[in-house]
Amino acid sequence: MTSGSSFEVIIIGGSYAGLSAAMALGRSLRKVLVIDSGLPCNRYTPHSQNFLTQDGAVPAGIAALGKDQVMRYDTVQFVNGLATAAQNVEDGFEILLQTGERYQATKLMIATGLKDLFPPVKGFADCWGKSVIHCPYCHGYEYRGKNTAILANGDRAFHLAGLISNLTNGHRTILTNGEPAFTKDQSDKLRHAGIPIMDRTLSEIVHRNGVIDRVLFADGTTLNLDVMYAAIPFEQHCPIPASLGCEMTATGHIKIDEMQKTTIPGVFAGGDNSSPLRSVANAVAAGNRAGAMINAELVNERFGK
């Protein structure tokens, strides 16, 4: 493949959503280029759960199998590289890679996921995706009945407390890591559920190979734990959607409609970057839908003309 090659569709992000879209498009004989930097969102997680036929599988294994199956379609090509910029050109978009290579396509799909922003707490990154987790649906069953903390505040902490209420009936603690920000109604309900709120500053997560033993606070106190749900901030992994003018939601996701279309004509998105439901299953579903919608749009623009 040479720089400057033209495609019908370029997919930025070759993980679950991107590969799923590429498969749908490849099966319609669309000329597709998948560009992937090799940094999937769930690379910290040793096992992927709650995905039919792949429950408990290694995420990298799921992606590798998916890529192998997608690359059997002759019209799909794959480039290992980092897409750094995009611009509108006649009849589509031009994508620039960090290496200086350029590729053009009529349609563009963004499947680049999100970048989680870890707090400055020693041990946090080592435990992320293992015993410091973000989603009860993805990991909660494995930690049912365990000594549990929620690192969050306000609405997000209250929401998580409700989600895990049927996974563990006791030993639940909310760590606000600062001044609590709950309404009176929320505080009353948390008190009624027997969930204490601790506002001490968290300084370290003590662990063994990513498995939490206890947490240390700045005042020298400790709390024994098995698992911590953490609602941490994130940003878009790729600057291209914003540079093209794609509108974002209040939560920082790419705004899409039910057809996976962004607010910029010809640009689609799917996966974690455009949905609060962060799971492999959801990403695969979004990619499959995006692939079908991109193909339909190409048909509508070209058939009979």
Describe this structure in words.
The structure is a single chain. The protein is elongated. It has 8 helices and 17 strands. The longest helix is centred in the C-terminal third of the chain and has 23 residues, at 280-302. The two termini are 30 Å apart. The strands form 4 sheets. Strands 1, 2, 3, 4, 5, 6 and 17 form a 7-stranded mixed sheet that branches. Strands 8-15-9-10-11 form a 5-stranded parallel sheet, covered by helices on one side. A 3-stranded antiparallel sheet has the order 12-13-14. A hairpin with a 2-residue loop joins strand 4 (83-89) and strand 5. It has helices at residues 16-26, 59-70, 124-127, 136-139, 154-163, 184-192, 240-244, 280-302, and strands at 6-12, 32-36, 76-80, 83-89, 92-97, 102-110, 114-116, 132-133, 148-151, 172-175, 197-198, 202-208, 211-217, 222-224, 227-230, 234-236, 267-269. With 305 residues, it is of the alpha/beta class.
